[in-house]
Specification:
alpha/beta, Rossmann fold, 3 domains, six-stranded mixed sheet, four-stranded antiparallel sheet, 14 strands, about 55% helix
């Protein structure tokens, strides 16, 4: 209840505003415009701030929503309320068509792509005869409930802000879920997310459609608020402004979208109203001053105004600790599992003329710790990437439990029970340790996006978080469970990655330099943990440069040099192997 109290207070305040004595109608109009902009900005928070997909084309989806209801209501006499699902459907279908192309882009090509189709759709709206060309469509009927016709800004105000509050709650619920964590993981790249079973193209398309539907909702309200539509509000400039709103408020924060809309809409109106008087109407100085003020604002609060305000609150909203008595079902394991879990036979990876992995063969058996060592550039991490499906091999075979996984995507490899950490830590820094670790249990959850938005996933979510909490405690970081991952030391972040991998409930754990950045005592604790995992039935394949750590821990060691296996055997045999001494241990053979 306490968590919802600020939202209830905000809703009461917004409901009371129109009844304040002497409230100018002009301010109600401003609040209506803030609400319309906030709907689009919330979608951009999810798309850009959380999902990492920069879009300048959201205004076009507003156009789809607005023109759909305008055509149906004026040309066919359809009730405005009946046009609402159709407006959202058209916006969603447009997002599917555009998203299938757009979400495949990366880097600077992605925002350029959104600008391109945003401009194209703007000109399409202005050229189609049935949309009224540049003149648009007028005479759109107002929204009505019984005899109440929402003809003035004060009556439609309530409908707009009810939609804003509902959309905000649905968006917050979505982010606080298994699906939401998958979306948030996209910002750090797709490799880590896919390693734990996240279908990144599907997650990107989902967030793209969701943002488009919110923009379509804003467009639907806009059409019945203004009672006329034309292409002007749906062009590239409006798309850029919506992105500004999300960034100013706080691109990763749902309520930041609402605050950003208030700041930008009010600031624009104040500047347009008063600057002409100050400068006697010379030039469009409000645009210049508006840009300067936004730059100054972002200098003062580079992550947005909302997080800047939250850091200055005298209290921090807490989160209920997971109930660790809840248990996820363990991974199904065959009663008579084969003794060899992983078998690599003449694996090869070639990048042009460079051979990174040269016909390497070795295996990992059940209840065994195998170390893969070698100088920098020996091909160790590339071998990990071949095993986990990040890279496709150029030759040879790789099999898990007798199943060939040469061309299997990372998600399918994770389903087989292989989990990994990374040479360069891949955590989401602005998510808590608990949330980062829970990503590892993604495949063990069932709830989807719709059930998450309506809080029907709570039983499933409680089990996922309980599993994450248990693994965090298992690796000795229980006191850091609510800390942001980015605030931890490098060594602690590596331990968090191990906890995340353990959430997969793996049969084989791949650790890429797990001891890097750890102090001596922490290395001893890690070695103890890995031995416990082995004794409990899990196998471990690790890459490590700390020879003392490896020699005391590994049951067997495989040595690579320039992509070629030069030795394999027990730690004692490797210590005395002349080729290993010459190539890696630094002495003359």
């Amino acid at each position: 209840m306490m968590k919802r109290l600020p939202i209830i207070v905000f809703a009461c305040v917004m409901a009371a505003i129109p009844f304040i004595p002497g409230m100018p109608p002009f301010w109600i109009v401003l609040l209506d415009n803030i609400g319309l902009s906030a709907l689009v900005a919330m979608g951009l928070v999810l798309l850009t701030g959380v999902g990492g997909l920069t879009s300048f084309g959201q205004a076009a989806f507003c156009g789809f929503g607005a023109y759909t209801t305008a055509v149906l209501a004026t040309a066919y006499g359809v009730s405005p309320w009946l046009t609402l699902p159709l407006s959202l459907l058209v916006s969603g279908i447009a997002a599917v068509v555009l998203g299938l192309v757009t979400v495949r882009l990366s880097g600077h090509y992605l925002p350029l792509g959104t600008i391109a189709w945003g401009i194209g759709l703007f000109y399409l709206f202005s050229k189609l005869e049935f949309l009224g060309r540049n003149d648009g469509i007028s005479g759109i009927p107002p929204l009505s409930i019984g005899s109440l016709r929402m003809l003035d800004p004060g009556t439609i105000y309530f409908a707009i802000w009810i939609a804003v509050l509902i959309s905000a709650l649905l968006t917050v619920n979505l982010l606080d879920s298994r699906t939401g964590r998958a979306i948030r993981a996209l910002r750090r790249g797709h490799i880590a997310a896919e390693a734990f079973g996240v279908q990144t193209p599907r997650a990107k398309l989902l967030v793209f459609i969701y943002a488009a539907v919110l923009a379509g909702l804003s467009g639907w309200f806009y059409a019945h608020f203004e009672r006329a539509v034309n292409p002007t509000p749906f062009g590239a400039q409006a798309g850029i402004e919506y992105l500004f709103i999300a960034v100013v408020g706080g691109a990763g924060y749902v309520w930041g979208g609402v605050l950003g809309a208030a700041i930008v809409v009010v600031l624009k109106e104040v500047l347009q109203s008063y600057l002409p008087y100050l400068f006697h109407g010379e030039g469009q100085l409000e645009t210049i001053v508006f840009g300067i003020l936004l730059v100054v604002l972002l200098q003062l609060a580079p992550t947005g105004v909302w997080p800047w305000l939250m850091t200055r609150l005298p209290f921090r909203p807490g989160r209920k600790r997971p109930d660790t008595s809840l248990v996820l079902p363990a991974r199904a394991r065959a009663a008579a599992a084969p003794s060899v879990l992983l078998e690599i036979d003449n694996a090869r990876k070639q990048f042009g003329g460079v051979i990174a992995v040269n016909d390497v063969s070795f295996d990992v058996q059940a209840r065994e710790i195998v170390a893969l060592i070698g100088p920098n550039g020996a091909g160790k991490s590339t071998t990990f990437n071949l095993i986990t499906g990040v890279l496709a091999s150029s030759g040879g075979t790789i099999s898990v439990l007798g199943r060939n996984i040469d061309r299997a995507p990372p998600q399918e490899v994770a389903k087989l029970g292989i989990a990994r950490t990374f040479q360069h830590v891949k955590l989401v820094p602005d998510m808590t340790v608990l949330e980062n670790v829970a990503i590892g249990a993604h495949l063990r959850g069932q709830a989807g996006a719709l059930s998450s938005m309506f809080r029907l996933d709570r039983a499933d979510e409680a089990k996922l978080l309980a599993e994450a909490a248990r693994q965090i405690e298992r690796v000795g970081l229980a006191d850091q469970i609510d800390a942001l991952a980015g605030s931890l030391s490098l060594g602690q972040q590596r331990i968090v990655e191990i906890a995340r991998a353990l959430c997969v409930d793996p049969i084989l754990l791949l650790l890429d330099e797990p001891a890097a950045g750890l102090r001596h005592l922490e290395k001893q604790q890690l070695a103890t943990l890995l031995r416990q995992l082995r004794d409990g039935g899990m196998s471990v394949l690790l890459v490590e440069h700390d020879m003392g750590f490896v020699m005391d821990l590994a049951d067997r060691i495989v040595v690579l040099d320039f992509g070629t296996k030069i030795a394999e055997g027990t730690p004692q045999a490797i210590k005395t192997n002349p080729e290993v001494i010459k190539a890696y241990l630094g002495a003359v053979a």
